[in-house]
Amino acid sequence: MSSSVVGASSNKKSGIRQSCEIIERERHSNDDTYSMTSTFFKLKENEIMSAQFDSLKYKILLISTAFVCGFGISLDYTLRSTYTGYATNSYSEHSLLSTVQVINAVVSVGSQVVYSRLSDHFGRLRLFLVATIFYIMGTIIQSQATRLTMYAAGSVFYNCGYVGTNLLLTLILSDFSSLKWRMFYQYASYWPYIIIPWISGNIITAANPQKNWSWNIAMWAFIYPLSALPIIFLILYMKYKSSKTAEWRSLKEQARKERTGGLFENLVFLFWKLDIVGILLITVSLGCILVPLTLANETSQKWHNSKIIATLVSGGCLFFIFLYWEAKFAKSPLLPFKLLSDRGIWAPLGVTFFNFFTFFISCDYLYPVLLVSMKESSTSAARIVNLPDFVAATASPFYSLLVAKTRKLKLSVIGGCAAWMVCMGLFYKYRGGSGSHEGVIAASVIMGLSGLLCSNSVIVILQAMTTHSRMAVITGIQYTFSKLGAAIGASVSGAIWTQTMPNQLYKNLGNDTLAEIAYASPYTFISDYPWGSPERDAVVESYRYVQRIIMTVGLACTVPFFAFTMFMRDPELIDKATHEEFTEDGLVVLPDEENIFSQIKTLFRHNRSNKKLGC
């Protein structure tokens, strides 16, 4: 494998020259001088630094440091997802777990675009450091929260940092790899999940989050930054090495000569380049629409509250205003319509949306379901929740090598979608009770395989469809659609849970006080009512009923998921950073292969013509 990876670098310099020529053409064909000048120089810096990673030892260092950084991010995310449940339980508001998840996802929608666009102008490393600061701030606020609103405020900062570090890490690995090996590089930060599922359960049990969740979160304010230091130092060192080259010195001299605009001009440029108005409109709109769905429930009759109704109506109006702004006024729209008009872009984005929608609607409440209605211990439940990540991480090196061999990804995504259908069917069948253990494990394994085949494959397909200068933007859009799917999925599952679970608990328990305890603090409830007790059986039956509705919705959404996979293009993953020929819109020139629906239509036409001819 190592010889193949090193061999991939033999074409690196020609790929760099071609990429720079593309950026140079775009730079001189655009009227926005400041925009293209700043973009050109930062991307050219990345190209020069990329040449420094030609040797095997630096490739190994890049992958190793990405692994260490990914270990810190992933372990914290895995543990914090569980600790959030204990935090909401301590506030006696466990049912609002999905509300926190929705707030996280809504904030992510706007922040993804900001990070991706700014990284082209200020550099990947600077934005990575900014994201790390947000990460630390959010962690500290969450750990000291004494009520849900304060915890949600901390989640906003934490999630800004979390999505930023993930996105910037992906872009850094993409900058320094060819399309052929990009899947291998991107999965390096995901490999820690080979270990995490088997230690996270033990960590949670030893940490006793029911009493110590605050300190358990707080410690990551210094653990994560330590895990990020190796890759930060590596990039700084490679930047130092690059600064010794004549090409770098020439670039810096050219940058000094062409630097234009003062502070005011730069601020105006950033206002339009980031599409601040569009980001605010879509973020507030989604917040107004999705968050109330997880707050209103029949027991409190909040649907009759004028504030809830007004918030929903306002969100709908703001969404249409957002679409009008993007179409008429935005100079650099969040949704570049010319780019999105090609099925090579909109189809993978549709796959991304439904992939994350299906995941979050099925897994948002999986941990409490395992504890309450399947008699799993906290250790076992944590391992089952993280089992899909283990399966995907374990198989990813082999899958990446297969991709490097075949250089195609569309069939993999179609197979991943088919696996999702099977997974959702198993979750529907094994949704609670003592006989569900093996079925849920099987569903989790299949979910891991589907995630392996879909998630990163779509990112690489989109990156292969565009120029290097557009790579960060299109990757940011892909991350935005993933968070949009996550937000809506979490909101739908939360709405179903809050609308249905209280009534089912009242109906099956026949005791209003006991039902309120089981609904607001389920972890406390199961410690008082062991498995097999009449009260516990009533709660299990309530959980089964609600899970049936949630999984039915998830299973139905795999149909449009599958349809989008059929329309995707299938660009070849060449041994260069980008393809050589692009359209004026920055899309790769590919043969106009027909999607499967067009092929079926052509087949039927052919059969009808044969019948008319009497064949």
Characterization of this structure:
- By secondary structure, this protein is mainly alpha-helical.
SSE diagram, text form:
Blueprint: H1 2-8, H2 12-28, H3 33-51, H4 56-90, H5 97-122, H6 124-143, H7 148-175, H8 182-186, H9 196-207, H10 209-218, H11 220-243, H12 246-258, H13 263-273, H14 276-295, H15 306-328, H16 337-340, H17 343-363, H18 366-373, H19 378-406, H20 410-429, H21 437-464, H22 468-509, H23 512-520, H24 522-528, H25 534-556, H26 558-567, H27 596-612
Helix pairs in contact: 2-3, 3-5, 3-12, 4-7, 4-9, 4-10, 4-11, 5-6, 5-7, 5-14, 5-22, 6-7, 6-10, 6-11, 9-19, 14-15, 14-22, 17-21, 17-22, 17-25, 17-26, 18-19, 19-21, 20-21, 20-25, 20-26, 21-22, 22-23, 22-25, 23-24
User: How many H/I helices?
Assistant: 27
Mean pLDDT: 81
CATH topology (fold) name of the largest domain: Growth Hormone, Chain: A
- The count of strands amounts to 0
CATH class of the largest domain: Mainly Alpha
**What kind of assembly state do the chains in view correspond to?**
single chain
The unreliable regions are 1-37, 297-301
End-to-end Cα distance: 53 Å
Note the run of SSEs as H and E. HHHHHHHHHHHHHHHHHHHHHHHHHHH
Kindly provide the radius of gyration, computed on alpha-carbon positions and rounded to a whole number of angstroms: 25 Å
**Percent range for helical residues?**
over 70%
Helix/strand-derived category reads mainly alpha
Largest sheet: none
Strand content: under 5%
Overall 3D geometry?
globular
How many domain units?
A: 2
CATH superfamily of the largest domain: MFS general substrate transporter like domains
User: Any guess at the CATH architecture of the largest domain?
Assistant: Up-down Bundle
